Every structure is written in structure tokens, then in C-alpha cells.
User: Fold these one by one.
Assistant:
Number 1:
Amino acid sequence: MSDSPAPVTIVSGLPRSGTSLMMQMLAAGGLPALTDGQRAADADNPRGYLEFERVKQLKTDKSWVPEARGKVVKMVHLLLKDLPLSGETYRVVWMRRRIEEVLASQKTMLVRQGRTPAALPPEQLARIFNSQMEELERWMGTQPAFQFLPVHYHELVADPAGHAARINAFLGGALDEAAMAAAVDPTLYRQKG
């Protein structure tokens, strides 16, 4: 029996890459989610965001991280490097989505919220996001505290059962795969590349 603390499971990726869906799957499968309910469901995410606000202050406040042991928490990709590297282990379900779909979904959400979409041309945004994701994958691959499993959104929606089995195996095999697969609603895949 190991005395090391339970790992922190993290769902991460670009905004609008399927992180909320993955949180819903893991919660349905029986993995407790660290959320605070502050961000309500809306037209862009009708089944909820499952976020924990304190994650956004990770650069200055890491005190909540032990609370996430044995649970799953969602965080945007750029915060991963701010996690404490000693005393914790992280299993990252790393959401990947076609970049044109991410950009279209982000734009739709911003317009719906009455906010101005990014001023940068889509090609430039795509280069920036792809570079960030590739750099973070390289970085996680060099960190002993991290394991990560890339999950491609369009493949997940096409084969929820197969991906539920793959994700469950990565996370130790104790989750309800049928419940995970049932959490996937293909009608919510609205920005297709």
C-alpha cells in the first residue's frame, strides 16, 4: 500500500475543445468532480461547465490543489505549468479538437455573449494555439509528475464507448464506462470542421 497521495485528475485543453463534455463523462463514470457551480449552464454549454473558480488563481494560490486529490478538475491548458510539481501526481485527459472548430466555437460563444471576437486573423490564432498545445505536450512528457492521454473530440463523439474504455484504463479502471459513454450527446457537436 502506497503512502503517496491520490493523483489529481485534470481535464485540460483549449477553450471550446470538449473539456466540459469530458468532465461530464468522468463525473457520470463515478469520478468526483471538484466544481463550485458558479458558472451556470447556458446556450453554449447547455449541460454545464463544471468549473472551479479557484483554478484561475493558480499562479498565486495553489492551496486548493490537495483538495483535488482523488477528484477531477478542469483547467485551461496554459495553467498546467503553474501546478506544484513536488508532492503531487497528475493524470491529464488532454482534449484535442480541430483548430477550425475551436475557433468557430469560440467566436460563436463570444458573439452570443455580446463580446468582440479576437482581432487576430484565424490563421494567426490557429498557429498560436497549435504552438501552445505542442509545447505543453512536450513539457508534460518531460515531467515525472505528469501522465497525459490525448483525446480527440471528433473521435470521442463518433465512438463514445471505445473512448470511455480507453479513458477508464488510463485512469485506473474503476469508472462506469457505460455511464461515461451515455454522457456523450452527439447533437451538441455543433461546430464541425
Note: The longest strand covers residues 90-96.
Number 2:
Amino acid sequence: MAALTAAPARPRKLLASRKTRVGILYALPVVVYLLVLFVYPIISTLFLSLKNADGSLTLHWYVDALTGVNLSVLITTLRISAETALLSLVFGFILANAISRLRPLWAGLAMLIVVVPHFISALVRTYGWIILLGDKGLVNETLAWAPGAPYQLLYNELGVVIGTTSMMLPYTVLLLYGVMRGVDRGLLAAAASMGAGRVTIFRRVYLPLVAPGLASAGLLSFILSLGYYITPALMGGPNQTMIATLINQQVTKENQWNGAAAQGVLLLLLTLAGLLLVKLVSSLGASAKKRSAS
């Protein structure tokens, strides 16, 4: 009896080992791809940021990145990214909320209008904003009757924030639309049937349900804005230099690869911190939904 029961065990082990070998064989190209195109460049950049000209290890480049002009550039980057995320949330919330209340056909058409410009080159869209916001552009021509016209809408922080917000808005609308479309409208109707007003329903029922989506969309806009280059470089002035522009200047004009590598590592750490926050917010939102469902 023991021999009969032990006989099938060996074929099962052989089959499992064969599946393991096949899985490793299929995964090997992916692993090599990630190592060559992602892991190796990151490690190389990290070592470059820790090297002196003579090859010795140092933290000088990180100290330099967090002091003086470089620190002010980092603060400017964080400030403009935060302003972009906030404005993207405000306008994205209004748009996504309006679209989520439409019938599926009209909602699909509206989302198409929001998303299609995103497939146009960022450079083309940026030049479009430069034409619109210039002294002789459509905006200033329309507001020619207003006191103080023409307004300076380019080569300052206002112009940069307008441009970056327009670039981030499709991401925000897409995220918020998915969250808002999934809200159970029966909960809102139940709150209304119990005598709650519109403001109370929005504040006590609707807003908590979409809050995780708001946090994720805001953090995503903030993360994407941190490393944005084209729009701030073309629509901003010297006081709106962001970290991506600084890295480009250090590499192309100053030939300072070590300092640029340190700036890049700092940008990577900020991005990773933002992604961890997004994951934390998503997990908290999922647990909150489970609690409300139970």
C-alpha cells in the first residue's frame, strides 16, 4: 500500500520542477530588461553622485544640492508642484463630478474631449499656451477692456502653474471620474430621504467616499510635476527654475555630472516617497470601503 501511495508523488514533483524551470525561463528576459534599463542606471547614478573628481567617496554633492541656490530651486519645485496639484484637484473635481452625472454615452464623449488633447505633444501644447497667454494673445485681447491690461501671464510662476495644471488635468479627471462613477447613488438618495440637505450630503456622505481618490489624484499630479521639464522651461523665468531644468543646465552647460546625479537621486527619493503615500492612501481607502460595506 505504501508503494502505491508513494508512486504518484514523484511525477508530481517532476511536473512542479518543470513548471518552475519554464517560469524562470520566461521571466529571465524580463529580469534582464529591468536590470539593464532600470536597476543599472539607478545604481550608476547613485555611485556617480557619491564620487569626487579623484574617485573617492563623498557627500559633497548632496550638501551642495541642499544649500544655496540649489535648495531654493528644490523649494520652488516643491511649491509649483503643490500649486499644480491643488489646482488640478479643484478643476479636476468639478469636471469629473459633472461628467460622472451624465449618461454613459455623453460621459464617454466628454471623457474623450478631456483625454484626446493629452495625446498631442507636450511641446505643441506648451507653445499653444504661450500663444494664448502672450501680450497679443487671445486672453489679453479678450481682457483688453480691463484695467491693467495687458497682463503678464508668461515667464512667471502664474504662467508655469497654468501650463503644468493643463498637463496634469487629464490624469486627475481620469482618476476622479473612475472613483465618482463607482459611488453608490443610493447612499445619496438615502441621505436625502432622511432629511439631509445638499451641503450635508456632500460633506458627510459624498466627500468621504471620494476622499481616497482625491488624495491619490493630488499626489499623482504632485509626483508628475516634480520632474516636469518642458513647460516650466518654456513658460517660466529665472525665478521659476525647477529641478529638472537645473539638472539639464548642470549636464549641458556646466558639465557637472556629479551634481546632476545628486539632484536626480533627490528627485527619485521624493518620487518614491510620493508613490508610497499613494499606496498608503489607496490601502486606507480600500479598508474604509470594506468597513462601510460590512
Note: Residues 63-293 form a domain with the MetI-like fold fold (CATH 1.10.3720.10).
Number 3:
Amino acid sequence: MNKHIPTEITLHKNRRILEIAFDDGQRFELPCEYLRVYSPSAEVQGHGPGQEVLQVGKEDVNIERIEQVGTYAIAPSFDDGHESGIYAWDTLYDLGVNYEKNWQNYLDRLKAAGHERKA
């Protein structure tokens, strides 16, 4: 069961940002690139610990549409064809709360793999 329920979800396509407000007053602006590289799908996360697949070249990715999944999640469709991630409310909340740490981890992983992110 989700501990955090969104009260508002707004996609700002021109800025490539998903803005989400929660019932506890938290509000996050999550870049589409960040959501894409941290997709909860098996394609990105793998099927177990250590099987994560580093996503590269996602700087310009955007969300084309968002479908609600029951009363617990959303399923965004990205313009690079990725549409298998189901983001539960708690997953989105966690991504918001841990944005700085997760983003730095992603940049560190890119660098360690020899990839340079486009500015």
C-alpha cells in the first residue's frame, strides 16, 4: 500500500519535467531524463541486484503521454520508445526525496563507464 498519494501530477513537456505534489505537502520537479534512467522496469533494473543496465544518451528524452495504473501508479511512455516502467506513488516519492543522491550516482556511473553526458 502506498504511503504517499499524489495530489497533482503535471507534465511540462517544454521543460522535460514531471511535477508532482503529494498529500504531505512535498512537491518535486523530476526531469524526464532522470525518470527514464531510473525506470523501475526490468529492462533498466534487471531481474535482481547487480543486473541494472546503465542508460546512456537520454539527455533529450521526453514523456509523450502518461497513463494512470489503477489507483497506485502511472505508466509514462517516453519518446525513445520506452514504456514498460510502472511508477508506483511511493517510487515517485522516493525518486523525489533522493533526487540529488540518485542523480550524482548516475553521473558517477556514466563517468566510470566512459560515457560523457551531453550538456
Note: The chain has a mean pLDDT of 95.
